[in-house]
């Protein structure tokens, strides 16, 4: 990733924070209930002292009435040998594997990253691709090699409309993506409205360096915007 691209994307986190702050007053989330279970403690045995009612002449820890010929420390009623294998009713082995979060082993995706299937993402990139992130409003889509790499973020506050982004990035070329007004700005970012108006706040914005990334970004947004439209 080029230094210019890193420098431009460095401000995305701050923009997302501002967008979140702007919508926090207008929304309320319900917290997940938590269950505080009573702590359970395992009883312990105190072997440091003998019961007070043992006969005074008994050996340490054992009643005096036991036969003298017993094996050391074992009552006579126990079998002479322990079984060499598990009882026949138990399974002979534990399952060889455990469920994984995803087919790739990289963990289950969520939020925006989960909005596009692996098969669809590979088709968009023209080869093996992956996602990075678990936020509800942003995700990085990239080839498995690391390039091309495109970050997409959702914004819904004032100042984040298609036309506002076009003005702030020195103009651009208007187009339509999945039936929604969009623009490719002079800074090579691709912005699409989540509504049917270029002036209404609510956009998906893909950060690119132009060229191949710009073309992939348009395909990504075409797949994403129907799922974020309002």
Give a brief rundown of this model.
The chain contains five helices and seven strands. By secondary structure, the protein is of the alpha+beta class.
Q: Main beta sheet: strand number and arrangement?
A: 7 strands, antiparallel
- Listing every helix as H and every strand as E from the N terminus to the C terminus, the arrangement reads HHHEEEHEEEEH
- How many DSSP E strands? 7
Cα-atom Rg, whole angstroms?
33 Å
Shape: globular
In words, what does this structure look like?
The chain has about 230 residues and is an alpha+beta fold. It is about 25% helix and about 15% strand. The chain is built from 5 helices and 7 strands, in the order αααβββαββββα. The protein has helices at about 5-10, 10-25, 120-125, 160-170, 210-230, and strands spanning about 130, 140-145, 150-155, 170-175, 180-185, 190-195, 205. It has a 7-stranded antiparallel β-sheet, sandwiched between helices. A hairpin with a 5-residue loop joins strand 1 (about 130) and strand 2 (about 140-145). The protein is globular, with a radius of gyration of 33 Å. Residues about 25-65 and about 90-110 have low confidence and may be disordered.
């Amino acid at each position: 990733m080029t230094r210019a691209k890193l420098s431009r994307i460095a401000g995305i986190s701050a923009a997302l924070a501002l967008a979140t702050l702007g919508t926090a007053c207008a929304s309320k989330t319900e917290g997940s209930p938590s269950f505080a279970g009573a702590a359970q403690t395992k009883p312990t045995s105190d072997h440091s002292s003998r019961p007070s009612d043992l006969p005074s002449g008994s050996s340490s820890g054992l009643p005096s009435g036991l036969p003298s010929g017993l094996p050391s420390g074992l009552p006579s009623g126990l079998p002479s040998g322990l079984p060499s294998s598990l009882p026949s009713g138990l399974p002979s082995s534990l399952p060889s594997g455990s469920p994984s979060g995803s087919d790739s082993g990289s963990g289950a995706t969520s939020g925006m990253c989960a909005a596009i299937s692996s098969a669809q993402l590979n088709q968009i990139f023209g080869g093996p691709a992956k996602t990075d992130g678990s936020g509800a409003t942003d995700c990085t889509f990239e080839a498995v090699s690391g390039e091309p790499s495109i970050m997409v973020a959702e914004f819904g506050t004032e100042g984040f409309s298609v036309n506002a982004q076009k003005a702030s990035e020195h103009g651009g070329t208007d187009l339509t993506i999945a039936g929604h007004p969009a623009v490719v700005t002079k800074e090579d970012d691709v912005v699409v409205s989540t509504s049917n108006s270029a002036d209404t706040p609510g956009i998906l914005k893909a950060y690119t360096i132009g060229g191949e990334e710009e073309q992939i970004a348009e395909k990504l947004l075409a797949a994403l915007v129907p799922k974020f439209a309002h």
